[in-house]
Amino acid sequence: MTSDANATDSNASAANAGGYVRGLAERARAASQAIAALDGTQRVALMQAMADAVAAGRDDILAANAADMQRAADAGTTGAMLDRLKLDPERIDGIVAAIREVAELPDPVGEVTRSETRPNGLQVEKVRIPLGLIAMIYEARPNVTADAAALCLRAGNAVLLRGGSEARDSNIAIAVCLHRALREQGLPAEAVSLVEDTAREHVLELLQLSDLIDLAIPRGGEKLIRFVAEHARVPVIKHYKGVCHLYVDRAADLDLALKLAIDGKLSRPGVCNALETMLVHAEVAGRWLPDALAELAARGAEIRGCERTRTLFPDAIPATDADYDAEFLAPILAVRVVDSIEDAIAHIHRYTSDHTEVIVSVDSAASDRFIRDIRSSAVVVNASSRFNDGGALGLGAEIGISTTRLHAYGPMGLESLTIERYVLRGEGQARHPDVARVAAAG
Question: Where do the H-state alpha helices sit in 86-239?
């Protein structure tokens, strides 16, 4: 994407001619070298310029978003998707603040994570370097355009962005601001490249570019993420959905349990770290569950429960296996009464999406067992599931949450956008000295 009409027309012509995304990726790949060559101070200056540019472009971004919102409403979009699409002055402020926060984070590029001297005097270091070119495929949330660009560039990478058609105007308006900042810093605007044409065939083309793209990160609904994973020839980091659990132990602080259930389920139901299922130990269910579920229902939650839950709270809708496997993204909570922590852990193992699991307990042995036996990307003790978030964990604006057990697991901040390589410093050491001497003598 470029900021002037002529360049936009040129992009459209390229799209019609074929190879549209490859052309964008080739230019972004070349631009990644300029970003990787910057030192930490220069990348901080770029972040501040990007934040200033988004703040200055506020009115244009809001106007573009209003057009996107109107089209979405006309198309019948409602609920969580519409909320994710919406920008307002407060959310623009949040985008600006997130970029500035990224600027202040410790620079991972060049960090030496291991250093030792081998017996032969060879110095071995493990050093963080940028990945190169990262592709982001996302839907609805236009703030991802700025968040992804900030994180990728701060870690020395270029980024190729493909947002959803529902947020096209918003994404273009934000990208215009980011390009302005890049040019002001004497850098190629192609370091942040936006696929303006949102046709599905361009996504397929992008996913085949294993010679240009180092990593693809899909961010959106399960359908989008599965599509990317099934068609990609480039490496993909993903999470399909967030089926997050809250387990109320026999030794729970029950006032705290209700507080965490309300915050986890109702503070923002349409996000991936919202609670979807609550498991309650049978020893506390009788005295706690009726009032707790009544309070949740009074606050707008729909309760779907097992037979034992419905005995205690008759207004609950019968829950099915599909409910326990669901990411509702809505004020709906599936509830089950369990007889032990072992049963709670077994339920989570069956239905987990490896996102976030919470235990409420004052019994440290129970909490330790929960931590040990659950393998999800975040395990939380006596706190809200909503804390599994890059900003809340001090990473700055996250680029996504990975439930893929590869180099990144959980919220992905700057470190997750770098890789570690070995740097060896020697003084003539040879692996096979005798062979080397013979070769030299010959």
Answer: 89-104, 143-154, 168-184, 200-207, 222-231
